[in-house]
Sequence to fold (469 residues):
Amino acid sequence: MTTRRAQGVLATAAYGTLLVLVAYTVPMTTLAPTAAALHAGPTAQTWVLTGALVGLSALLLTAGSIADDRGRKQVFVVGALLLALSSAAAAAAAVTPLFLAARVVQGAASAAVLAPSLGLIGEAYPGGAARVRALGVWGAAVGLGIAVGPVYAALAERWLGWRAVYWGLALLAASLLALAATVLEESRSPARRRVDTPGVLTLGTGTAALIAGLAEGRYGWTEPVVLALLAAGVVLLAAFAVVEARCADPMLDLRLFREPGFVAATGGALFTGLAVVGLMSCLPAALQRVLGVSALAAGGVLAIWSGLSVVAALQARRLAGRIGATTQLIVALLVCGVGELALVGLRPGDSWLRLAPGLAVAGIGSGVLNAALGRLAVTSVPAHRAAMGSGANNTARYLGSSLGVAVTVTLMGLGRPATPRAAADGADHAVLAATVLCVLGAAGALAVRAAQRRGAATTDQSDSSHSSR
Fold:
């Protein structure tokens, strides 16, 4: 592939990734006016925030597997089209159920855009320093989307109303569709396989049930509907594992979990969602409750974290020749933990500047983390299954995000009224929990790296023994 064509593929994949993150984050700063206009109650407001996560998490791995087998461009284009249509439907929705349905479809469309993106980049950049730079750009797009989304939504809502936010998304998705149709070339796995229908059904329904249970659980974890949803999710995901173990052409080859790189990528993505995305998704709401700042100001404060993550992701390529991706993952999670710990102690009347150092440190860690996860997602699976690796990685990230948001909302008490001081105490509890999760994620990755090195040492000894004979 020529350099110019490869750059076009990278730009398209990065733009699609950015747009997916913008679509995910816009409710952070537009929830109140959206809920008021649609007369949405507390439970419906929860679904405004998590509806996209249901579609996104349920279909990421499926979309990645289908993209590898049927065509990465085809899946990406379908995703861009659905993202445009669902965004327009959200903008035009007159009642809450229609808006929530549009958000779920937005999530499904986002999965179809996001899952093939790393596969397209891996095809355009087969290896070497160019691939490392390209994956750094992809990681920067993740951070940029999180930075742009809340600010864009707050500005569009202030000037034109909350519906303009979704009309704007529809137009942006239409431009992505045109770009993808023009720039991308079709690529797929050389060995075409049958669609793993049982795997699709068990994974999709199990993930959706689990996330629905987490969303509903914010208002009472012992409610029968919550327990039923969580139990159904666990049972269906266990059934998915059984199906994949017995399937001739599995959507997710469980043998990959014997590979330390894949385990590090998947576990690192899960803890990134739990410890970083979950906390930062709720931070703007916490700032509004504790400091009394506007939605736009809260989005601007969050941009310290997400903006620096963009810079760090772009510069992470300089580490590639010196530090392995798994080591980067370990260090980045610890850096995120240090930055998050510095957020503890915010009180009513404090300046938002009190948070700037911690957000800056966490942002740098997040940028390196995104770049390392992108590298691991592509390099830990066979080249012809790159989109599946991307889907598995992002599924873990957004499943972790769902759980992280649920835990953070519960600890912050965002589902109920609170004084600024009580809100500050809840924020401290959530930050401390996220810090602990960062450390646990780093410890898990460290254990994987140790196992990887022991395996390499054993192989070297075996080779030496054979050669001596």
